[in-house]
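Model it.
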Amino acid sequence: MTGSRPTSPDLRGPHRQNPREHHPGRDASRVSRRTALAAAAVATLTACVPSRATPTPTTAAAPAGGGYGQAQLQRDVDAVGGAGVVGVQGEVVTESGRLLARSGVANLETRDPMPLDGYFRIGSTTKTFVATVMLQLVGEGKLSLEDTVDRWLPGVVEGNGNDGRKITVRHLLQHTSGLDDGLEEQKKLFTSPETWRRERMRTWRPEEVVELATRHEPEFAPGTRWSYSNTNYILAGMIIGKVTGYTWQQEVRRRILTPLGLRHTIAPSTSPDLPDPHAQAYQRFPSHGSWVDVTAFNPSRPGAAGAMISTTGDLNRFFRALVGGALLAPAHLAEMQKTVPAEQLGTGVGYGLGLMFQPLRCGGYWGHGGSVHGYVTRAGVTPDGRRGVAVSATSNSPADPEAGRGASRALDTLVDRALCAAG
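Modeled.
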């Protein structure tokens, strides 16, 4: 998976927290009820998620139960590292404990070890946060899944057979719109280290990304097929802005990050920085055989399709709360979990509304992966929301597809073993 596919306010300091946004005129009772649910979920999760300030390979290695322990996680993380990535960090969490492991290095020059629960770019895992906000708005009666794009963004999607009057919010969130992938078009700008350095700090407006996509004819009529397109979530972020009067980043912070206490998750706007600790990200370009540091770039390009930054601990907390029912009413969580076949992402994969169901040897799990310029993420939870896994690998190589497939298989094996363990 490439670009921002599955697989900030700007930062002012290494540990800046996202302030709670003030939104006048909100339905305070709805927000307070949801916050109370989220707070209850956090209270439950906190029992098995120690303070982020203290994780080490020994003190954070409480048994996860059922035969999957620290030693097995370390072997699985080492296998990912052995598949050719520069560094990897992983976390498995259950009601009975939390496991963390790392392999490889955080920086090829200094050879510093990978951080445990360090910050990383989560790529398309951002989509689940954005879809959750959209479904909360549906629950508040401010938006309908059957609203057309043109209702909220008149004239934005048109030309070359593209028609925003025929594409619904549901189509966007489920990748059944037929729209071309605008970020794939932009990748043509990043074919070498030289073009990367020239273009990486450019600020993109979401309208520009959509315009690149609508230069192409749609792949199919809305609702007739499935095809992954980052353009869908660029438009979803724009719709959040129209519906609420605030940016998608502000709404993610207010509705998800603050209630759940996700103090190490960031929804940036244009800042290229990551807080410390973080591992450097590396990528090989088709014209250049060596690893190139691609850590810092302006995240306005992936935007609502893939701009966010998080940690393994925060991702596990988010997905356990979401699937556990703390963020959405049951009817809206059920809508999120209505899937269509997404065979492009693997045999048996189903895509809901910003949430994927992926098969395991013991059934399956809910989550969403992501990749963006040197960072590859896997994150998800068992259907009961009790057992979660989050992994970040800090390199990818579009120039070497076979190496990428090897790393992907190792990541999938880690997830399968961690989530299928009994207990």
